[in-house]
Amino acid sequence: KLNIDVDIVQHGVEGLSYLLTESSKLMISEIDFQESIHVLEFSDELNQLLLQLYLDNRKEIRSILSELAPKLPSYHSLEWRLDVQLASRSLRQQIKPAVTLKLHLNQNEEQTAQVLQTDPSTLLHLIQQLEQALGEMKTNHCRRIVRNMK
């Protein structure tokens, strides 16, 4: 009916849905939204229609996006054990430590357990990496990103 190629219509719909979902994810203000679409050089009337469409539907879009987000497991408890092999038949004096972790997780009202085993040096490296990640969360850059995600 429009006498327009199907690909053009499809790309237009995809672009519009991308604009609305990303704007809703970031909860950008009216002014920021207008500045974002001003670059597209649409008419003022179309810009106002897009702004009104965004304002009318952003809460509904956010609720749909939150339902589509994967439900990640959450921490419940942790059990650990240190095993040390002191000798074997072929090697009388050896020390081979191993740390076994049993991680209990909650997911969708169900409790699951994951068993992990590692050597102490790898565990120390993992701890250092996690502490570094926690330290990075305290930087101003990360705080700004987290604040904008909410």
Automatic annotation (TrEMBL):
Gene that this sequence comes from: Commd2
Lineage: superkingdom: Eukaryota
Domain COMM: 74-141
InterPro entries named in the record: COMM (IPR017920), Commd2 (IPR037354)
Name under which the protein is recorded: COMD2 protein
